[in-house]
Amino acid sequence: MSATSPLSALLSRVDAAIVDLDGTMVDTLGDFAEALNRMLRELALPAIGAQAIEHMVGKGSEHLLRSVLAHVLASQGQAVDAAQVEVLYPAAWASYQKHYLAINGQYAQVYPGVVAGLQALQAAGLRLACLTNKPTDFAVPLLQAKGLDGYFAQVFGGDSFARKKPDPLPLLKTCEALGTTPARTLMLGDSSNDAQAARAAGCPVVLVTYGYNHGQAVRAVDADGFVDALAEFAAASA
Ligand SMILES: O=C(O)COP(=O)(O)O
Ligand SMILES: [Mg+2]
């Protein structure tokens, strides 16, 4: 991309970037599938396929777990109500947390171009924070396991603030921690959650085209730009 590309112009107007984790930096679908299916086995419930899980990712682990429990109960031919899910939830959460932490990162891959993209953003002088809806206790070891932790001045999870994305609060708090204004802080994500939170916070937002967007076409989301790989920022900042 040339120095006058929309991406270069956007980069010249920001001091920092907030980067999403699942679906943006790391393809964690394999981790989710492994930990969830170990949990379901322990609870003597039927297994769930990766494609069904993909559509449930993005709104934090509590939402994921409730969606998975409702899905597998329904697959047994039961009429499912929220109360049945809540009965199973405490044991499911304890089991899921144990299994997720045991396999964290082992069935997950860093997407192509992520390291080049982060290096380029840093070289362009941007301060970087990672903001995910994943619990912080899952996010920090995953970043470490994948060698990505060193790029971020701050790492915040879905339990760091009172509300999660798509609420703007986590973005506003992350800007505060970075010492930047929302208008000069770029959100990089993979889903409508990230874009809605960014719009409401007043942050410019660019989405990757390869992540998880609740089973919807990501290019239909209201955003300032789309990239097929974070490495496009290397060309944009050159
Ligand atoms: O754990 C999730 O729900 C997804 O988290 P993300 O915000 O990093 O995409
Ligand atoms: Mg994501």
From TrEMBL:
The active site is at D20. GO terms for molecular function: metal ion binding; phosphoglycolate phosphatase activity. GO terms for biological process: DNA repair; glycolate biosynthetic process; reductive pentose-phosphate cycle. InterPro entries: HAD-like_hydrolase_sf, HAD-like_sf, HAD-SF_hydro_IA, HAD_sf, PGP-like_dom2, PGPase_prok. The keyword Aminoacyl-tRNA synthetase does not apply. The keyword Magnesium applies. Its EC number is 3.1.3.18. It comes from the Bacteria. Pathway: Organic acid metabolism; glycolate biosynthesis; glycolate from 2-phosphoglycolate: step 1/1. Belongs to the HAD-like hydrolase superfamily. CbbY/CbbZ/Gph/YieH family. NCBIfam families: HAD-SF-IA-v1 (TIGR01549), HAD-SF-IA-v3 (TIGR01509), PGP_bact (TIGR01449), PRK13222.1-2 (NF009695). Homotrimer. Specifically catalyzes the dephosphorylation of 2-phosphoglycolate. Is involved in the dissimilation of the intracellular 2-phosphoglycolate formed during the DNA repair of 3'-phosphoglycolate ends, a major class of DNA lesions induced by oxidative stress. This is Phosphoglycolate phosphatase. It comes from Acidovorax soli.
